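My current task is to audit a protein record that another person submitted. Thanks in advance; the entry in question is below:
***
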Amino acid sequence: MFEHFFENETKEQLTGLTNEMQAIFASQKQKEKPVVFVTNSLYEANVFYNALKNYSSSVYLFPMDDFLTSEALAISPDLKYTRLETLNAILKENRPLVVTNLMGFLRYLPTRSLYENKIITLEENQEISMKSFITKLMDLGYSRESLVNKTGEFAVRGFVLDIFPVSEEFPIRIEFWGDTIDQIKEFDVDTQRTKKQLKKIILMPNTQYFAIHMQPHFPLKIPY
């Protein structure tokens, strides 16, 4: 019904659209190119995101606290992981539609190439120094704990390294034999029992910020 509704629209600015019509307009634009839709507040971003899900399967939310204080960031881990899931998802998309609030749009992010270079792929029998691997994990924003309980943590016991990667439902246990990865397993965080054996695991960054090459652009402007 709405497939050609906006095809003759040539103006740079449209006004008077309801939330539902804005969602239809954005989903139609997505067929041509990647779209970033910016709202005034986080509440409006959530409302628009939920409306867009009725018209597109490739819509993502990039939420940021409306008030950027250290206290606000400290109590918003869910927003952080939603942002990371969005960044990871749009790496695979040609024309994503991302909804964000003003604070999310203004947030500093790494370039696409830097972010992709931080992704770690591990396989059985791969040669890798455990010490350097731990350093890389900390660079990726993972925190070292005595025991893994939640996403973003890792723990080391002898030649065994447990990690709860971003975007994974269960934590991963990596067993080393010297500087060689002997086994990779998915395990239950409560029972510590192995759920299944894995041949390969991809570890995504647990942070959006790195020490070098920062630029004040949302990734879709590269375009992402």
Remarks:
- The domain at 118-203 is CATH 3.30.2060.10 (Penicillin-binding protein 1b fold).
